[in-house]
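Model it.
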Amino acid sequence: MVFDEAVRTTTRTFIIPTVYDQVTKGSPSLMKTLRLAKPWKTGTKYEFPAKIVDTTNGGWTGVANQLDTDRQNTRVTASFEPKMVYKPVVAADIELTLNMGSERIVDLLQTEYDSQAQSLINLMGQGLFLGDGTGNMPDSIRNSADDGGAFNTYGGISRTTYPAWAGYDLVSAGALTLAKMATFYDAIEIGTEKPDWMVTTKALWSVYESLLTPQIRAGYTQNGFPKMDEYGIVGGNSGLYGQTGFECLWFRGTAVVKDEQAPAGSMYGWNTKYFGWKGIDVKAAGVSQLNFKSTSEGIPSGVPGRVPSTKGFNVREMMSPVDQLAQIGYVFYAGNFISEQPRLTGAMLGLS
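Modeled.
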């Protein structure tokens, strides 16, 4: 409708005091990884000893045989560097002044912090799947799961010299099948340690759903269907109620999750005990660790930014440059995505 000046000069528009995020992608994998983050307290590098080869000394022995006394070295040190990713928060003094009082719709400074924190988490999601560990880039599930073809060195250890340091990496995988998923799963299961997180794209998740639909319909009708929260799996409802399609799927008891940050044509699997985020809470003047968001109606459920921050999320307080009438601060993550057991991580790439 087109209103005349009689109405427009006497009536304000109705503005909802909520910013609705149309950009940030959902990433349950990143949210779970950050939720389970471990502290990186001090030290210029994150290092740990890894048994990388087996010994050849010793063995079965007979009566009074001479015993082998050869001492063999089986350990090397894996070494990872800290990485940082940041976003600036900038607001002009005049803007902050005019944003005060009864004419304010939303808090400008808080909105800028939240917006940049959401953008920061998008960068983190990209780093989780695409980081190569070089320069300022973080390590990732991609170079942890590599078998040496694309990333011969991981944590400073050569996979050519030590093949046991490799993950499982199937490139140009082609059509997704249950047989390929079984091979994938077997390759990253060691003893009783198995992948507890499998993630793929929405498109490939739907392909997997179509492969299982004839097999799982009866079971879910009888037992109810499970539902997923933003971190993983929660309990099911009492019945299927005629619903078509499923909200969460498993493979051999491991959740198969769809993630908007997962690269096209990919499926990854890992054990969250041995792969995750090691966060550094920076101790410096003006830097603190805060939750950038507890809840927001403007951010879809399951999208990072709607939940509290975690280890390694840092905020530098607003400061005024000497040559600018403005306030500038930063939000940043410090740490790295690190795997202590690359052989428990896997990737299938080029899936269709």
